Every structure is written in C-alpha cells, then in structure tokens.
Amino acid sequence: MKKTIAVESLFGNEVAPARIVRAGMKGLEKELELAFKNQQEKRRVADKHYRTLHRSVLSSLGENAKNAAAVKALKAISVQHSKIGLRPPTMPKHKQRIFAGSIAATVAPPFNYQWTWNAFSGSVDVLNVMANAANGRMGFDIDSNNHCACSARVAVGIFFRPITDNGILFIWANPAINYNWFDICAFDSTHSDGFLGLYVGSYDLSGGFAGAPVNQQISLWNDSSWWSGGSDSGGNSGYPLFAPCIVDSSHWYALWVWCGGNIQADGWGTFSGSGAGATLSVAVPSITWELF
Prior knowledge:
By secondary structure, the chain is an alpha+beta fold.
C-alpha cells in the first residue's frame, strides 16, 4: 500500500497540535462575539424608531383580511425556503505535490485543522455548523421564521512554517460551493449575508497567537430589506481565493479556508413579519502555498 508523505515533513517540521491552533482562534472568536453584540445593540436602538414607522404604516393600510392573507402567504414562502435542502458541491481529487523553483506545495485532504463558531439571540429554527479536516468539507445552515439574529463561521486549514528567515507567502485555493439564502418580509426588517475567504493565523514558537496577517471575507450575497426581501441560490465549481502575506521563521502559521454568514429576522404576525436563512456548503480540494 502506497503511503502518503506529509508535505510539512519534507521540510523538517512537525505539525503544531490542534489544541494550540484552537487556542489562537479564541482571539478571533472574541472579536466575532463583540461584533455580534455591537450589531444587536445597533439594531435595538434603530428598532425603536422603526417600530414607530411600522405602526404608522400598518395603521394607514388598515388591518383587513386581504392584508392578513398576503402576510400569511409571504410567511408560507419563507417557511418553504427554510426547508430547501442543499446538495454538497462536487469536489475534484487533487494530488499533493512539491513545486520546483520557488518553494511551494499543494496540500490535499486530510488537512491539519478544523474550526467552527456560532452566536445567536432569540429563537433560531435551524443552526448547524460543520467543518471536517479529514475530507475538506465544511458549511453552515442558519434559518429562522422567529425573532432572532444568528452568525456562523467555519474553517479548515493546514500548518505552515517557512524554512527561510523571511519571505513572501502566496496562498490560494479553489473551493467548490453551493449556497441558498432568503430574507422574506412584509413591513418588518430582515437580513441575510454570506462570505468566503482565506484566513491566516500567526503563532510565535512558544505557541502564542501573534495576529492575523490575512483576514479575507469575499461577499457571496448581502441583502437587507423592510418591505419585500428576496432569495437566491447558486454555486461555483472552483471559486478563486488568493492572498499574499509576509512570513518569517520565528513564527509558524495556520492557513485556513473559511466562510461565514449572518441572518436577522423579526418573526411573523398577522399583518407583518419576516424570516431569513443562509446556507452554504463548501468543498476544499486543496490548499496551495508558494514561498518567495
């Protein structure tokens, strides 16, 4: 049976333990939690004014059976969207290889690390996050037709330590993606967004987190509405991700492909309401780095 040789072993390095990498990601998790809380506070302040307009609009329209029937139909559409299943994208088989010339490598699954994070307020109908370093697949599914806000982040990654004192590192990946989102509403606020990107965590040789030289978030969709909202689905067999950063041998690095999404909804009443969802499935066939 042919044995696969780990790329990092060819350069005399041992992969840093996952527990150290996860400890380094705690800083990012605190930033995400603070951003989530700040966003909820902004929404709380704005909602006081929206409610005044909300009551005025509904009062001028009148609480009649026809309007109630329209809101009920929109709620049914929102619930239907939240039940749409998402097929995982097809992932081509990539082989690990070492490049001649500049020092470079393509690393295929199994990867070294996986990571998930989520936060929510209110009542969420669906909250699933998944990252699997063994096969390079990750994704999230967040949906709600209740009053809520929810955020999700997931990632898979690899270990890297340069063998030169200093250098410029180029990182790229071409993950396959499938996604589905919606923000259906009638006279109530709602939001849905999703992103894909690269994230690089830097660690000193004692394992302490030293910062994130790359924090890339490329928007896949971003929609907010108070009146009608929208929905969409799509995919890409190879979404191009690329980022450079400066590296040195006094640090080692975790190179991640990551994605995330956020939703906000007010739930449904008789004459107004909103629901939102965000679902993203990602397959990462390989992560490539090149050191100059």
